[in-house]
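Throughout our pipeline, every protein is held as a single compact record rather than as scattered files. Such a record has a labelled line for the sequence and another for the backbone structure tokens. This encoding replaces a full spatial description with a residue-level series of whole-number codes. For reference, a complete record is included directly beneath this paragraph.
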Amino acid sequence: MKTFRSIVAVFAFAAIFAVSAFAQATATPANPKIGIINTGAFDTKEGITKYVNAMNALEGAMKTEQTALQTMASRLQALQTEIEGYKKQLEDPKLPPAVDKTKLQTTAQTKFEEYQKLGLEFEYKQKDYKASLERREATIMSPVRQDIGNALQEFGKKNGYMMILDASKLDGAGLLLQFDSKFDVTKEFITFYNARPATTAAAVK
């Protein structure tokens, strides 16, 4: 199964950079100033404190449901292993005569029925988990990302950037083949953001 962080990454910063990769309203300068920020660094030990706290809050809110899914997945895997073992025994031409083949088949069928039933329940729980995650993600993470988006606008204008691009999105799309590290202002922005007043503190409780 994917890790919690990997799942939540689906909801990441596309919306922020839809508004935060901006051109200033003034005339384009002869040498436009462009910055690159790796939003993937926000959820790290040296990242944006508010974002990390929000992710931890979201993970905590989903822990019970996530643990239940992991338990079910483990049981499904164990059942699959058992069923494959019974199948191998039943197909073994050297199966000892003393082994009750009918009983073995009955046991295998019972395990298979349990596997099917649990599989359907797991599929339902997965859908329910995804819906619950989307709702809680919107409640907990969206205000924080919106605040980060506002801060990016402020940071860009304050430092005279015509445009700020998301390195992680460009790299993921195969569009970032090489860039000069002097344009990377990730650490600078993180420092700037962490020093700002806590305007979305209620969102991460």
